[in-house]
Amino acid sequence: MDRKNFEINPLIKDFENYIGKVDLAIKQELELYSASEFFEPLQYALEGGKRIRPLILILSAESIGKCDQNAYSASCAVELLHTESVIHDDIIDNEILRRRKDPFHIKYGYNTSIITGDFVLGLILNISSRLDNARIGRELAITAMMMSEGEMLETRLETSEDVTFDDYVKVMEYKTATAFEAAAKIGAILGGGTEEQILALAEYGKNMGIAYQIRDDLQDWNNEDKLFNILIKKSSDPRVVFDKMEIMLNTYSKKAKTTLRKINEGPARTRLESLLDLTMLSV
């Protein structure tokens, strides 16, 4: 059985208050559509998430000095974008379990899954319009497109006989890291950061996202028929692949921590640094 389906949220211990506020913001957002056909299915889809992307957004805003309701609204948009991608990814990957329960497509069927993804994009656009900041809307749009590009690239590469580490990193950048990057960047924008601070936090998010995905792949490699498995299978010595992955993991995690030096010291920056523990779990 896939380990990730039984993993307790490791963020609860240190970030319970933040996660509670994010969950409340998501609940309030969904209640705007309580009469919709999508209300109950979306409640189901959003249950049990770690909320790491919203958390990065909130802490990035706080690290600059300003975190208001707009930041929590934006955190909902980021989590909804992740949720939409999970719904569709689970169909593509033929998942049979997600967060200790049926994946969305098994619970509600393929048609509802596809239509729900469309509805979620509408929710994200609505939130973006309320934030009244064209830059945030552009970041969310670019992120959605890049995540889709990453999924397409991965789908093509899974049938290729010549997958490289560069291919693997590119897919991670597009599918995973771009959402982490957007979360940090949007938080910095809403926090009123300078361009240097915005770029530094964006770089933090991107590097953390890559490290986070590498760690996840290292822990789940034997349970997922992904690009990492292809790299292992084509290698004459799988240990070389694992060693290179662990080096990459440490490199990207350290890069993420280094970029935070451009952010003023304080509780929020310390919490962003502590989030990097998620990339350094035992593998």
Give the helix tally: 12
**Major sheet:** none
Indicate the CATH architecture. Answer: Orthogonal Bundle
Q: Would you identify the regions where 5 or more consecutive residues have pLDDT less than 50? A: 1-6
GO molecular function, one term: metal ion binding
InterPro entries: Isoprenoid_synthase_dom_sf, Polyprenyl_synt, Polyprenyl_synt_CS
Family: Belongs to the FPP/GGPP synthase family.
Protein name: Polyprenyl synthetase
Polypeptide structure, described:
Helix content is 73%, strand content 0%. The chain has one domain: Orthogonal Bundle (Farnesyl Diphosphate Synthase), CATH 1.10.600.10. It is globular. The two termini are 17 Å apart. The chain has 283 residues and is an all-alpha fold. The chain is built from twelve helices and no strands. The longest helix is centred in the middle third of the chain and has 26 residues. It holds the Pfam family polyprenyl_synt. One of its GO terms (molecular function) is metal ion binding. Its cofactor is Mg(2+).
